[in-house]
Each structure stands twice: as C-alpha cells, then as structure tokens.
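Input record (one chain):
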Amino acid sequence: MQGDRSAPLPALTRAEAEVVDLYLEVADLLGRVNPARGRHTYGSLRAAQALAVKAAELRDALVRMHERGEHELHAATLERALRVLDGERRTGRVGLPPADG
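The corresponding structure, as predicted from the sequence alone:
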C-alpha cells in the first residue's frame, strides 16, 4: 500500500494528526538537506533553518500529547496515516539514492 491516497485516512486525534503532519514536514525538510540529493548549498541551508523550527514544533506536539495523558503511540494507525499521506516517498528522500548500475 504505497502512498494509497484512495484509502481513507484513519481516525486520528487532533494531537496525533499534528504529530503526523509535523513528522512529514520534518522528513520533507531533512530530504532537502540530504547532501546526497541536493545541488545547491543555499537551498539546503534554508531547509536546515526551517528544519530546526519544525523539529521544535514536533517536540512540542509530543510534549503536549504526553502532558494530556496520551502516553502511547498507536503505531499501526499512525503507520496507515503516514502511508495514505505518501510517507514512504517523502521519508525515502532522507536516505541515499539508489547506486548507479
């Protein structure tokens, strides 16, 4: 089920949805910073600057969840949400590109 946008997004709490959205934003930025995929230092620099802000927002969202008593992540549900939101492709940019040949 790779980026299956036809599948419905699973029911998430507002906090879970915020964590998923911020996680994907962080992954997108980290992919832009990836030196194995980048071309220009300026774009990577801008992404790195934004990454620091988004990582702090993600941390804060997780703190709020914990403080509200949400101590467990429902991994199967969150995984489904990430897949529906194209998380496999978006997080794939963080790793090395396929080797030539």
